[in-house]
User: Which sequence fits this backbone?
């Protein structure tokens, strides 16, 4: 008898857990009012588990253009480049988000700030032309906005959608190794995403991989 | 015969009643049935932010050949419901709405939808999707992060600061505070020594700032949930001879623009209220003509950092 009860309890627990995970494609009807801010963290962790490794990382790796190619595409028209290779954020005037990969010599490094950055020279002119954000403070929500899997309409409100952006930035910075010692002069290879509103805007990359070469 | 006459009388009376109803309806603002009209419903225009919204929407509506029916709900959901009834009775083609409550407004928007009138929301979200055609809101979180990044930079990543919170019942107060702290809290040398609500109010912010200063004379910066509170705090700081304190606000009002120009408040974050309202009318027009807006229902509009570099270009919640 107790065994049956226990089994039943286990089943309930198991179903309860798996039930919690199916939130990604929730519709307005399924969105119960109980889905308030108190459930945000758990819901977002589930969403990350479903999307980060299985979908987002492969998508970024697959779509990442070499720096020079993306620069050329953007230079001949941001809108066209965006439609061909990127994804626009939600709303008018939102930035175009692109996946990009490349390598360059580290010519600037700020590893003391809470917003750590590396400035790379990818075209060998001696000046920094790509800035990698190494966190923990990361500007923007390019990882979220590049992804085709997250739609603002399916989120309760701005806050929940914002928490996803922050969580993605946190996952990304956690998976990137901060270089030991002085990185200046070394070569760094990266894959990541950028958000730009104009062709002339400086590139601020949210990297998902970073490899230091001597 | 008698029965017939009675019936005729009744019929006459009914016509009279209908005529009176029509006359009354005609007495309401801009209900002329001749041109296609769009209702523009916002909170009170006493706040220049909402006035800018209504002006922006009305200008775009006129440009696209609609008559604008401008109404205010004064943040009263019951009044808003009555305004929706009026708009439905006036057979407007579409409703542009800055709503009077995320939950309470769902029913009103649904009522219009049931009557075949699409609604396009600006500034504030409602808690349901699939009821309005569009919900275009400022990206308050992104804006707050911009303000916080500027604040951190101005503070040199360290020092004591205070936060003025907006009205607790308003979700925008919470959203902005979260955006601020997601950035500022990552800097261990920035210490929040006071945090208090001033309910979006300039006069309240003045008093709150006075007492915060007395209790914490070491304050180096103040980050505020909106511009009116930032103005109140700045007045208190000026009165106390503490114009060295860094103040950052939110909204992009002309008052703060002028303060920035004079070297007072250091920065604010512009919510593009005017453009947002215009965009909503454009989407309404496209929806009426083609049956679709071509974009997602919920849309975020990014905010823009305003500081001494670009303050001169700011005019009535839009960058020139």
Assistant:
């Amino acid at each position: 008898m107790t065994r049956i009860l226990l089994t039943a309890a286990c089943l309930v627990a198991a179903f309860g857990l798996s039930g919690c995970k199916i939130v990604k494609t929730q519709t307005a009807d399924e969105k119960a009012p109980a889905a308030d801010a108190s459930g945000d963290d758990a819901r977002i962790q589930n969403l990350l588990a479903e999307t980060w490794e299985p979908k987002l990382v492969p998508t970024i790796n697959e779509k990442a253009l070499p720096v020079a190619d993306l620069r050329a595409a953007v230079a001949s028209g941001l809108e066209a480049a965006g439609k061909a290779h990127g994804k626009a954020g939600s709303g008018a005037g939102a930035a175009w988000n692109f996946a990009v990969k490349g390598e360059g010599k580290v010519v600037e490094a700020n590893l003391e700030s809470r917003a750590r950055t590396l400035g790379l020279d990818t075209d060998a002119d001696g000046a920094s032309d790509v800035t990698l954000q190494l966190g923990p403070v990361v500007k923007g929500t390019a990882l979220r906005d590049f992804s085709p899997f997250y739609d603002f309409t399916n989120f309760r409100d701005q806050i929940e959608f914002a928490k996803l952006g922050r969580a993605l930035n946190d996952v990304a910075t956690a998976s990137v190794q901060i270089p030991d010692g002085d990185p200046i002069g070394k070569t760094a290879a990266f894959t990541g995403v950028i958000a730009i509103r104009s062709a002339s805007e400086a590139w601020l990359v949210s990297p998902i991989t970073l490899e230091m070469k001597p | 015969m008698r029965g017939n006459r009675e019936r005729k009388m009744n019929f006459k009376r009914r016509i009279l009643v209908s005529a009176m109803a029509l006359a009354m309806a005609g007495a309401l603002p801009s209900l002329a049935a001749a041109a296609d009209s769009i209702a523009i419903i916002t909170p009170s225009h006493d706040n220049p932010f909402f006035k800018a919204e209504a002006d922006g929407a009305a200008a775009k509506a006129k440009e696209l050949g609609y008559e604008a029916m401008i109404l205010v709900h004064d943040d009263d959901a019951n009044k808003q419901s009555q305004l929706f009834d009026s708009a439905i009775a006036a057979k407007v083609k579409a409703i542009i709405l800055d709503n009077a409550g995320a939950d309470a407004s769902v029913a009103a928007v649904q009522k219009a939808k049931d009557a075949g009138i699409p609604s396009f929301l600006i500034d504030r979200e409602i808690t349901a999707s699939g009821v309005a055609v569009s919900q275009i809101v400022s990206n308050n979180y992104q804006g707050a992060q911009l303000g916080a990044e500027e604040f951190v930079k101005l503070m040199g990543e360290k020092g004591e600061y205070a936060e003025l919170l907006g009205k607790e019942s308003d979700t925008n107060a919470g959203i902005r505070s979260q955006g601020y702290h997601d950035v500022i809290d990552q800097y261990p040398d920035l210490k929040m020594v006071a945090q208090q609500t001033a309910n979006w109010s300039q006069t309240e912010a003045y008093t709150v700032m006075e007492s915060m200063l007395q209790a914490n004379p070491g304050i180096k910066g103040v980050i505020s949930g909106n511009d009116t509170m930032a103005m109140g705090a700045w007045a208190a700081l000026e009165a106390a001879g503490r114009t060295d304190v860094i103040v950052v606000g939110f909204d992009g009002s002309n008052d703060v623009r002028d303060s920035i120009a004079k070297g007072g408040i250091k920065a604010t974050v512009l919510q593009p209220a005017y453009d947002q309202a215009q965009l909503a009318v454009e989407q309404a027009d496209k929806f009426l003509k083609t049956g679709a807006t071509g974009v997602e229902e919920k849309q975020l509009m990014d905010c823009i950092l305003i500081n001494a570099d670009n303050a001169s270009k700011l005019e009535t919640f839009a960058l020139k």
